[in-house]
Input
Amino acid sequence: MPSWPAETKYISHATTRVDGAAKVTGKARYSSDIQANGWLYGMILRSKWPAAKITDINLEQALKVPGIKAAVLARSKEFTVRYYGEELAAVAGTSKQACLDALRAIEVTAQPLPFVVNENDAKKADAPRVWENGPNYKEPNARDRGDVTAAFGQCAAVIEGFYSTPVQTHNSMETHGNTASWTDDGVTAWSSTQGISSVRDGLAGSLRLEHSKVRVITEYMGGGFGAKFGAGVEGVLAAKLSREAKAPVRLMLTRFDEALAVGNRPSSFQKIKLGAAADGTLLAFDLENYGTAGIGAGGDAGGGGGGADIPAPYLYKVANTRVKQAAVAVNAGSARAFRAPGNPPASFGIESAMDDLAVKLGMDPVELRLKNDPNPIRQREYKLGVEKFGWKEKYRKPGSSPGVVKTGIGCAGAAWPAGGPSKNTHGEAQINPDGTIEFRLGVQDIGTGTRTVIAVVAAEMLGLKPEQITVKVGDTRFPPGPGSGGSTTCPSISPTVFDICAKALQQLQTQSGIADARGANWFPACKKLGVNSLTVSGQWIEGLSSNPAGGVQFAEVEVDTETGLVTVKKMLGVHDCGLIVNQLTLESQINGGIIMGMGYALYEERVMDDLSGVMLNPNFETYKLPGIADVPEIEIVLINMPERGVIGIGEPATVPTAGAIANAVANAIGVRVGSLPITPAKVLAALGKVPPVTA
Amino acid sequence: MKEPEPEKFGAHSRRTFLKSLGTVAATTATAQVKSVAAELEKVNAEKVIGPEAVPVTLKVNGEKLKLLLEPRVTLLDALRNYSSLTGAKEGCDRASCGACTVLINDAPVYSCQKLAIEAQGVEITTIEGLAKDGKLTKVQSAFIEKDALQCGYCTPGFVMSVTALLKKNFHPTAADVKHACAGNLCRCGCHPHILQAALKAAGVGHAAKTEIVNYA
Output
């Protein structure tokens, strides 16, 4: 079995990004920066009806707009649109301004249909159907384990709570889109994607081209968070426009488009009943949950089903459980994977319930978790966190903080066992006689530092410096690798690079006669290659990576009981890291996960208008992201377990944040705000100072 | 975000137009209203340009950039779509994310909110203009050293905002940095490292907040 070196120079140390300079100088070319020869601007016309039968789309006038070179239909002239923002047609022209004019010139004839955008309304039997062939919601069957009813009877304390989470939108800073160029040789797409291979396959499928005729290039992309795996309607339309116009077309979504049509995290409405014995041992758990994945919750399945479920009872071992959950379809854009799908709402629900139960039991919330969380790594994380955070010194009975501005603390846990390596990861390295070496892997950098991870591992294994390693990623012509999602990239590529390096050293030994080609011997050994470069292929190998257990986080907040404003003062993240590959980029990912979780806890929510069926906040002025002034002091404790090999961190870092903050707020004010985001209005309502907000 | 004085924006700024109008109006205050209207029409006739493309000269990173643009083209689009300067990014096109931040006469400006024709006769600096002869500035180096970026799409905007801050405030506090970056959004959540980088570039130290603990 291979193993990582015990003594390291780069692995587990802090290495700055190998592409840092490109990113701080503007030299890094993102998908939206591509200026292919003779490129045209592309734009999409979207439905202004939340539901309608489209009876005609006339592109003639649009094609007459000066500068317009092509116009195509998104689907056909007659079809049913099911949400405000669904694609109708697209145009390509010599300028953005020409495209804007052309979109206004497209004539659409439609018969508006009844619609429903609110989960609670959509559940009703007489609600307008999002999909004609089935109801929006079908009462799910309960999954029972043990005897829940009897177990609740034996509990010393039982709580019942209602915890809800909103639809969250991804909002990566670079929108979805690409530049597509269709020539006789096939299609080249410079795509803003986290999965070059899945985009390649998607484009080939939609355009009926052979895989070998589609090339996807993603040198730099501006964030995805789960929403950018597929070719997308916008990718297919860009390619079709390119075919029509006989020129490359750059089609990037507007910020407005982005909010409506390219994914979101489903909502959740969790009714939880949780009971424990006097010593805190959980005995019974009952969950009824529904949420919406937009139109994605319906479709061919015939009405509601799938798409919004959460893991339950999540981290805890409970002998008697009953779980009932299903998705409800509404007339809104479909959900997509979003950083640890299902887990942040699951963590928020159960962790809120755990704290409510701890209060009823008169128990310390951390103690209740230690009593019921079977995972040894999280047990260790809680104990470390308690010490580092000063939990025992800071913890006060809920609501007992004096004054108008009350302080409180809370904690919550995360699991992400799904995040492990993708065994189907390949790569190659070309070693030249002058000692230069280039790695090529068909993966992409979503922002986590993929190139740097490859350079760090290669430098370690070859006895070189990271800056001596050239790394090429983001091209379907390279050996295939996984999409950047599910915290899988690092544990997939690190063993792959290990394998390539081991094979390279072996080959170099054979060809050069130098026993150990590492370090000082590298250049002499390469020189002996003569005139031919050496190319080595490798793939993911067993024994160097594993799956993450998760992490725990602690929050300290201040709540102004006169304004309702919540300010996060401090966050502590204690995370399971396996073998740390690069401390610097690891910290960045944990910070990012915590900050995104803060947005989920306090600010972010897709607001739909029941009467018009329109999303009311498809922009950054009204859909609030955390800004630099909102971000508290963040402390990180990394649990180093090199024997487990490389694991991913992207997802677990964002999972427990909202639960920890919500529990800190409840601890501060002595009442539970069970609905995210915890806005000032909801805080004041919970304190009885204003009437409650009705969703 | 403080904008430079509009007076400095060349011949076509709204302010200079209104000013000239004001002078005209004052001198004819006692004359008939009709003659004021006639004057106004004359002034307008001289000033109106477009809707067809017009020649525009921008001074970007010390070099003249001559373009033919419709008057409605923004400075951001002029840079990204009509020249090869794609460093400034489009994140929202409506003054809420800051990815398009450039400097105009050393002050940070959302280039998506300025028409290219309004940006003539001023010094425009984009992210591409910071590193002279390939030598990174202190701000750029600090961003790399502190890993103040992930996907990097918002990075040019943050770098420009911090650069502008350090041009006028040599000893910024954390609060100053937060204020200077209040108009920039980052979805990857790089804010703690951005703060550290800005302070580092200003020569202010920052204690590390990460601890590595062995499991065993």
Q: What stands out?
A: Residues 33-47 of chain B form the longest helix (15 residues). Helices of chain B lie at 14-27, 33-47, 75-82, 138-145, 155-168, 174-180, 191-201. Chain B touches chain A through 64 residues (CB under 8 Å).
